[in-house]
Amino acid sequence: MNKLQERARQLRNTQTPTEQILWFSIRQNQIAGAKFRRQFTIEPYIVDFYCREVNLVIEVDGDVHADQKQIEHDRRRTNYLESKGLRVFRVNNNDIRDNLNGVLAKIYELVKDPHLASPDRGGTYDV
Questions:
Q1: Contacting residues for 62 by C-beta, under 8 A, at least 6 apart
Q2: Backbone angle region of 60, left / alpha / beta, with phi > 0 → left and psi within -120 to 50 → alpha
Q3: What is the pLDDT of residues 71-115, one digit of tens each?
């Protein structure tokens, strides 16, 4: 096992509370039968959630993602993932806590229509 895979395993064991909330809602094919993996390696990154069947990455963003350096890093990361044919849905912690049903509805929409582009490149999506 390489270092990135080891780090992914550590992250699976130390999920944030909002990642846990979302994982509980999308695991076990609960969203239109789609299988999501958590803390999945897509070299050179580890993404929060990934569904291979519909090329969808879900990134859960906390307060640190409002920092200008982090915003630029997230933009580069999103561009890289999209260059690999993946769609990236960035969702804010507050949206998960305050509007989980809206977040799940958007994920459902993205799963059901795999041709939808990334909802909002480099930022959060209003749910």
A1: 16, 18, 92, 93
A2: beta
A3: 888 899 999 999 999 999 999 999 999 999 999 999 999 999 887
